[in-house]
From TrEMBL:
This is TTF1 factor. GO terms for molecular function: chromatin binding. GO terms for biological process: termination of RNA polymerase I transcription. It comes from the Eukaryota. The gene is Ttf1.
Amino acid sequence: DLDTARQELEEFIPHVKNISDSSIKKMAGRDLMRFKEFKKQGIAVKFGRFTQKENKQIQKNVEEFLSLTGIDSAEKLLFTSRYPEDKDTIHRLKIEHHFCEKISEGIPRPWRLIYYRARKMFDPNNYKGRYTTEEKEKLKKYQALHGNDWKKISELMSRSNLSVAMKFSEIKSAINYGPWTKEETQKLMNAVKEVMSRKLKTENPSSLSSLEQSNTDPWIDREKLYQQLPWTEIETKVGSRYWRQCKQKWNSILTSKLTKGQQLYRGTNGLQAKINLIKRLYETKAEDASEVNWDELSNAIGDVPRTYVQAKFYRLKVSSVPLWKRKTFSEIIDYLYEKKLPELQEKL
């Protein structure tokens, strides 16, 4: 029963109303029982970035499935279409040995997200380094022939779908690497406001109406929406900047507006902010950066976006933690708490 399945899934996935019927049917079969088991254990369904622990579990699940079935590589298992002569055999083994259940074992996430993560981890085409001049020319030629069919282009170039899409976005037009002009900045702000207003109108029309009647802009009042912005669309509207530049500039503009230009990381305020940030990070007991709720943590510094807090944490660990690249996230936090925190408190 599709309606019942959707209703039951809503307990675990708040945005289930936006998911297609065909996806609901798949999730009812692959995920619902798993979600209920995790609930009994007091474990919530997760979204967002995968943790190191989850990545290791995926690796373990894949390796165990390969051992169980005799399939000789993760690439064959996860990119079966690249091996047409083995396709039927691999498909049969997946069904016989319950591939969906095995690959998602121990991970409280929708199966589809686990599968996509596994494909990203085990795709050898993801680790081919920088694009050569010849590859860039090929990419432009293939895009002219096949449009934005990135799956087709990725097969022709032996690169991942995401890699070719992002690289084409970067090279498709002349990119300006100099300071932002007033005209470019205004184009960016207009583009962001347009997509945010559209998103807000879709989610909550009455909220947009009330905001439009106030003296403030909805795109500033609803700053948290910046995380889901369609940056490639914004890049097209700006015209002269690569999507990542647009994102970085927007975060800079947003931070400036929310802090009203205050230098929060200066003097005694800066020392106190660092102390608060270290304490709050230590209290989370997180094993990985992706387990931290950076939005909630942002008030340790001020009313700023999560990217602002993440940038400050990055500078803090680089400047304070010796050999930080060799340490785990929790080891870095422990070091900051035990060594750096007393030093900052004394200085304050």
